[in-house]
Amino acid sequence: MKEKTEFLEREYKNMLERGETWTIRSLNGPSQPHVIVEGRKCIMLASNNYLNLANDPRLKEATIKAIEMYGAGAGSDWSIAGCMDVHQELNKKIAEFKRTEAGITYQTGYAVNAGLIPQLAGKGDILISDALNHGSIIDGVRLTKADRGIYAHSNMGELETVLKNTEKKDYRRTIILTDGVFSMDGDIAKMDEIQKLADEYGAMTYVDDAHGEGVLGGGRGIATEFDLEKKIDFQMGTFSKAFGSFGGMLAGSEALIKYAYNTSRTWLLSAAFPPHVAAASLAALNIVEKEPERVKKLWENTKYFKKEIESLGFDTGRTQTPIIPSMIGESKKTQELAKKLYDEGIFCLAIVFPMVARGKARIRNQMNAGMSREDLDEILRAYEKCGKELGII
Ligand SMILES: Cc1ncc(COP(=O)(O)O)c(C=O)c1O
After folding, report:
1. Which strand (E) or helix (H) includes residue 160?
2. Could you say which of 3.20.20.450, 3.40.640.10, 3.90.950.20, 2.60.40.1220 is the CATH number of the domain covering 57-290?
């Protein structure tokens, strides 16, 4: 008899043939600009650690102190018995940092989108989403019975058409959902225009600031960048990227936060993250507030690298941020380039389907405030060599 699970191997083989599998590589130490990956010294070009905080001694010290004070785990869900002082302190700090009435942590950024979006809309409502929004928004939308409207990426004309059509249906609630910085292309949502349209049509706005925090608005994120701190209805984000720690966050009105934690199934039905994680996140927010030069350095690196890689002949798409893709197209070729760069001591990643559409494979180069000019030049030299060898440039 044929094995019932035989399909697993078959499907995996198909993915392998299409060049759509991940090779998971382990770091032999902390995530920082210079890393050791499976014994090889590399420059890290693939992490979200934009502000170089993941191995910051102050985050580590806060972590160790919190472990000594609170132990290793929270012992329960936040809703039951897992909420400790340090979690509450972080909740307060989120609101202060985002300049909103209130804030709260979730287990992850994914858990915010997957848990909250289904509680904001249901039958009789409509969720309007940018076509390139992150998968966690898509999953959140999929969990609702609300109608869906998708507009072509950052196309404000299409967004307005969708909004106009909502007027015919007499929806109870209309929410526009967008990434702040689009994670695969590095472009910034036209938040001012989105908010204006939302106000015009009586819609609410929901922004995923995962790649905008630590990057835009002096580090506070997209709402600060566009002076919309008091206007955007729902701001979510994560501590797992620029802030070098872990966990999701939500910021907004007092009413939102109370509603969110009383209804989000991800928040209610899953354990609190360990207290030391909250301590590290708190330390990170304090550092970002006190050291604006980090964000400045990140942008200096971004501008230099973008200009130089483009002058080598690589296409960086529509990026406006420290996410600077080199657009290649074909999955296998992209993986070949990533492999060659790895052999040259550059740790970067081929982003292939299903992370991006087929034929749109790329290497996602991500800047770090801790990178020196020498690091960037070394990466560029490797790109030139490998790009020529593969006939890309
Ligand atoms: C745009 C976006 N939103 C949400 C998330 C999820 O965040 P977390 O890693 O905290 O689950 C990510 C992470 O990949 C992301 O890129």
Report:
1. helix 156-169
2. 3.40.640.10
